[in-house]
């Protein structure tokens, strides 16, 4: 006995005609008749009597019908209750992020996803200072994903580029280069340089580039906000900071951020790292597909750092 047989039985009982019931159920009349016969064999008593071209319930069939209708009503109520519970259920996706994305770029991206997603998803976001601290936390399952730099060399992780970030020069407003809209490496070489120190991701992304161009910066920045704060101090007004422009939305009035003509292509991308071979929740898979689609539509050039990252 299966649910389809019971639904067929109720339809025949209501319509009292095999042909009409078969048409309503979108099956053939022989298939319907055979289904009812199998059901009668299973319950052990006849369900219908023939009355001309019509059929009518036997006394036993009437008793059976009452219980079948109640059972199907209960089943339908259970399905509806389960669907309502599923629709109300909120799936949490745990993500870690580096500081440079936490000021608005990442939250806007996640809010946009929530606005178009059919799933009820909440993002539990944690700040972790450095990419190299985030990646083990994804591998160990602390986070479902990390928004960070490219996890070069981590074979267990996949990574999707999302947010372009350019290499720039940062100077104090009193610096001789402050009024320029673009500077060259040769311009920068005339002044003391400052840049990121380990374990910042950009320390590793810039290190070989500095060697190639003969730059010897003093390593003092921990992240992009500290880069701005250092360059805002008058004591460093003769220096040029070499950094990523991810803090351009919160520049101090006393600081200028200038393009570097050797690096007009994207230098760095922040993106989403996640375990490659893990079986993720359906909600995370839907989110990952959204991230991949966004990347395909918006990322069209390889990051310059791929030549230099060590």
Structure description:
The chain contains 10 helices and 13 strands. With 310 residues, the protein is an alpha/beta fold. The longest helix is centred in the first third of the chain and has 30 residues, at 59-88. The chain is rod-shaped, with a radius of gyration of 33 Å. The protein starts with a helix and ends in a 12-residue tail after the last helix. The mean pLDDT is 91.
Keywords:
13 strands
Short description:
This protein is of the alpha/beta class and 310 residues long.
What portion of residues belong to β-strands?
Answer: 15-25%
Q: In one word, what is the shape?
A: rod-shaped
Look at the helices and sheets and give the structural class: alpha/beta
Main sheet attributes: strand count, strand direction, barrel closure: 6 strands, mixed
Q: Detail the poorly predicted runs.
A: none
Work out the number of β strands: 13
Strand order of the largest sheet: 8-12-7-11-9-10
Radius of gyration: 33 Å
SSE pattern: HHHEEHEHEHEEEEHEHEHEEEH
The share of residues in helices is 40-55%
Q: What is the rounded distance between the termini? A: 66 Å
Please tally the helical runs, counting DSSP H or I stretches of 4 or more residues: 10
Mean pLDDT, to the nearest integer, reads: 91
Secondary-structure blueprint of this entry?
Layout: H1 3-15, H2 18-25, H3 29-43, E1 48-51, E2 54-57, H4 59-88, E3 91-97, H5 105-116, E4 121-127, H6 131-139, E5 145-148, E6 157-165, E7 167-172, E8 182-183, H7 185-189, E9 193-196, H8 201-213, E10 218-221, H9 224-232, E11 240-244, E12 255-260, E13 268-275, H10 282-298
Parallel strand pairs: 3-4, 3-5, 8-12, 9-10, 9-11
Antiparallel strand pairs: 1-2, 5-13, 6-13, 7-11, 7-12
Helix pairs in contact: 1-2, 1-3, 1-4, 2-3
């Amino acid at each position: 006995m299966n649910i389809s047989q019971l639904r067929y039985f109720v339809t025949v009982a209501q319509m009292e005609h095999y042909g009409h019931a078969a048409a309503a159920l979108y099956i053939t009349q022989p298939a319907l008749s055979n289904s009812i016969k199998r059901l009668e064999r299973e319950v052990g008593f006849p369900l219908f009597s023939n009355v001309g071209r019509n059929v009518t319930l036997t006394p036993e069939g009437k008793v059976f019908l009452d219980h079948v209708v109640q059972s199907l009503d209960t089943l339908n109520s259970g399905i509806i209750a389960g669907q309502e519970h599923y629709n109300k259920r909120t799936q949490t996706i745990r993500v870690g992020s580096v500081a440079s994305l936490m000021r608005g770029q990442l939250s806007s991206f996640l809010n946009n996803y929530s606005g178009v997603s059919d799933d009820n998803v909440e993002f539990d976001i944690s700040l972790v200072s450095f990419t190299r601290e985030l990646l083990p936390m994804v591998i160990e399952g602390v986070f479902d994903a990390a928004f960070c730099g490219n996890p070069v060399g981590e074979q267990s992780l996949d990574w999707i580029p999302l947010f372009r970030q350019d290499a720039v020069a940062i100077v104090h407003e009193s610096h001789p280069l402050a009024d320029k809209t673009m500077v060259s490496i040769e311009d920068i070489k005339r002044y003391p340089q400052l840049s990121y120190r380990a374990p910042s991701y950009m320390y590793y992304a810039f290190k070989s580039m500095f060697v190639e161009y003969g730059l010897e910066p003093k390593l003092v920045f921990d992240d992009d906000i500290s880069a701005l704060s250092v360059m805002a101090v008058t004591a460093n007004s003769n220096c040029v900071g070499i950094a990523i422009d991810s803090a351009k939305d919160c520049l101090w009035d006393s600081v200028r951020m200038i393009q570097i003509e050797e690096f007009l292509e994207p230098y760095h991308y922040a993106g989403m790292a996640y375990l490659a071979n893990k079986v993720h929740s359906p909600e995370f898979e839907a989110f990952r597909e959204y991230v991949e689609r966004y990347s395909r539509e918006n990322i069209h050039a390889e990051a310059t750092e791929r030549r230099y990252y060590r």
